């Protein structure tokens, strides 16, 4: 029997951990099980054609809110041309209303509910005629004649160590995000999250986790993303893993979802030892309105959270990604603006503005009518309106999210935004709100814009809407652009400051070994011509320097050297220094 495990990921760089678990848990069938991964953006003709060509007897799909529509479409098409193929679905999107899904989609033969490793393995044994009766397989929904039957709940796996390492020794992990979990479950009861429906947390043995991480390093992974809902819910466990990874000396990036308020002083001291870029933290703040947090049963000590975020930030070695959720019960626009400002003031490396999703099986969906929620019928069941926010409010926040992503989270305009906030706006939210209105009023939300075009848009906004001087705006945007891009030609309408014989003076500077030793020590032995290709010199006028945060050079015409050879690990910016040429 040939078995195909299929997933439609949201992007090519993503990978399906669930499929790899299922295959690894069927060790007696290694040659019969194959994994195929696609993306939701692939043409359906391609997806269905590739699955058909595998000529599998059993086709199992991993199903989530981001892929259920396309997955059902692919499964339906395959069943039309392969009536004898057994179609299986699993995953959170089909686990909470399995019977109605099978009633609406007659081409589905089985649904695996909840944790799938044991259920799937037993189902494969049944399909291969191994003697196991389908009625005895817990966690399974299936057809029997013209009836749909649902067996009892599958007990959670107590000992996670029985689940084999999910990645094959021949896998090329260098071009994808590699997902890994050291625990299952979450100790918190956040009502928008499905983890709240499962009590308790189960951990992999610590030595097993360390062995697995070493294997991922050997397999060439570039980024490992832990899918643990709250990685540091056991602070001692988390600290042991942090310490272990620091000591490995690897340059891989490890991403963790953490509760920042659970970090103690010992953990903070340890994290300062991490090399830049080794760790990346995602921290769900969601709201700073304590009443809202009570409504969703989220326990967060906000003063400690922000204090710890700032302590980590001071180390300049860990990327921190903080989340807010718009549409939570009890949060209106004024409350959300305060939450936004509270989070923005710690200057996270990324501020993600998400929108509440009323997931099947979640507590907040059960209270949807009480809260006046209107949400999309189709996945991802995103909020459209509530008792506290109208649809117009949600649309406004969508545009705030858009400009936040483009102008702040990209880090292309860091110095420009800091200047605007310091001199024009008391509230970060008010700035992004006004920018979103400018964005909409000029129809900019209706089209895509290349990176260079964004500088032109910001130039027009700052000069026309904020009334700033063209010289100051030119300097800020030119400075921000060159921190991210090495370019001889600046975006329109930015202008260079010209000085006589500039190119030759740059070559003369680079030809002096003392200058190279002082400003570019990593380039010893390079010729001036070679160096010129790796760096950039730019002249900033006195007027421009008044706007740029380089205190010692505000009163003079200044040449800034941009070194792109060894960018900052956290935000990827060029290293700079003011030089005389």
CATH class identity of the largest domain: Alpha Beta
In order across it, which strands form the biggest sheet?
Answer: 2-1-3-4-5-6-7
Give me the count of strands. Answer: 20
The figure for the number of domains is 4
CATH architecture of the largest domain: Alpha-Beta Barrel
Secondary structure: helix percent: 25-40%
The end-to-end distance, rounded to whole angstroms, is: 74 Å
Shape: globular
What's the SSE blueprint?
Elements: E1 3-9, H1 17-24, E2 33-39, H2 44-53, E3 58-62, H3 68-81, E4 86-90, H4 98-104, E5 110-112, H5 117-127, E6 140-144, E7 147-150, E8 177-180, E9 183-185, E10 201-203, H6 206-218, E11 223-226, H7 235-248, E12 253-258, H8 265-271, E13 279-286, H9 290-295, H10 302-314, E14 319-326, H11 333-344, E15 350-355, H12 363-366, E16 374-375, E17 383-385, H13 391-409, H14 414-423, H15 428-441, H16 451-465, H17 470-484, H18 502-511, H19 513-519, H20 528-532, E18 535-540, H21 542-545, E19 558-563, E20 575-579
Parallel strand pairs: 1-2, 1-3, 3-4, 4-5, 8-11, 11-12, 12-13, 13-14, 14-15
Antiparallel strand pairs: 5-6, 6-7, 9-10, 16-17, 18-19, 19-20
Helix pairs in contact: 2-3, 6-7, 13-15, 14-17, 16-17
Quickly list its features:
581 residues, Rossmann fold, TIM Barrel, 4 domains, globular
């Amino acid at each position: 029997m040939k078995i195909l495990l299929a997933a439609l990921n949201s992007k090519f760089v993503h990978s399906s951990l669930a499929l790899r678990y299922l295959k690894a848990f069927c060790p007696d069938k290694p040659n019969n099980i194959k994994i195929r991964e696609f993306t939701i953006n692939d043409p359906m003709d391609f997806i269905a054609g590739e699955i058909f060509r595998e000529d599998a007897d059993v086709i199992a799909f991993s199903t989530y809110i981001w892929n259920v529509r396309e997955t059902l479409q692919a499964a339906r098409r395959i069943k039309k041309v392969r009536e004898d193929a057994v179609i299986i679905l699993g995953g959170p999107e089909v686990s909470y209303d399995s019977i109605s899904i099978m009633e609406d989609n007659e081409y589905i033969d089985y649904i695996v509910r909840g944790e799938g490793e044991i259920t799937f393995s037993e189902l494969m044994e049944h399909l291969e005629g191994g003697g196991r009766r389908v009625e005895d397989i817990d966690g399974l929904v299936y057809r029997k004649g013209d009836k749909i039957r649902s067996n009892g709940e599958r007990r959670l796996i107590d000992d996670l160590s029985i689940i084999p390492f999910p990645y094959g020794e021949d896998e090329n992990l260098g071009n994808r995000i590699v997902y890994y979990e050291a625990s299952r479950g979450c100790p918190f009861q956040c009502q928008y999250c499905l983890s709240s429906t499962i009590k308790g947390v189960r951990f992999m043995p610590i030595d097993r986790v360390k062995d697995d991480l070493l294997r991922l390093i050997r397999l060439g992974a570039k980024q490992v993303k832990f899918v643990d809902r709250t990685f540091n819910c056991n602070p001692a466990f988390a600290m042991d893993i942090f310490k272990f990874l620091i000591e490995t000396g690897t340059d891989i990036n490890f991403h963790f979802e953490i509760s920042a308020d659970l970090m103690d002083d010992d953990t903070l001291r340890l994290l300062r030892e991490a090399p830049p870029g080794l760790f990346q933290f995602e921290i769900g703040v969601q709201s700073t309105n304590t009443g809202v947090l009570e409504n969703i049963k989220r326990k967060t000590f906000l003063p400690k959270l922000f204090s710890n975020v700032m302590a980590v930030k001071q180390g300049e070695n860990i990327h921190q990604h903080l989340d807010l959720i718009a549409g939570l019960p009890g949060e209106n626009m004024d409350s959300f603006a305060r939450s936004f400002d509270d989070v923005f003031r710690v200057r996270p490396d990324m501020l993600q503005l998400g929108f509440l999703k009323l997931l099947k099986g979640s507590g907040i969906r059960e209270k949807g009518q009480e809260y006046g929620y209107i949400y999309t019928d189709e996945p991802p069941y995103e909020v459209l309106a509530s008792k506290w926010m109208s649809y117009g409010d949600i649309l406004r926040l969508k545009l705030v999210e858009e400009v936040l992503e483009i102008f702040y989270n990209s880090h292309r305009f860091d110095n420009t935004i800091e200047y605007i906030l310091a001199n024009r706006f008391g509230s970060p939210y008010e700035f992004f709100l006004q920018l979103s209105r400018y964005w909409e009023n000029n129809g900019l939300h209706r089209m895509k814009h290349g990176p260079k075009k964004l500088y032109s848009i910001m130039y027009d906004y700052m000069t026309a809407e904020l009334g700033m001087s063209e010289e100051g705006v030119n300097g800020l945007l030119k400075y921000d652009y060159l921190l991210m891009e090495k370019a001889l030609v600046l975006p329109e309408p930015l202008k260079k400051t010209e000085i006589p014989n500039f190119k030759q003076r740059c070559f003369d500077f680079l030809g002096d070994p003392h200058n190279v030793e002082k400003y570019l020590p990593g380039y010893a032995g390079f010729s001036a011509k070679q160096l010129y290709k790796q760096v950039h010199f730019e002249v900033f006028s006195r007027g421009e320097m008044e706007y740029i945060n380089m205190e010692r050079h505000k009163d003079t015409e200044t040449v800034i050297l941009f070194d792109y050879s060894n960018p900052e690990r956290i935000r990827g910016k060029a290293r700079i220094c003011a030089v005389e040429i």
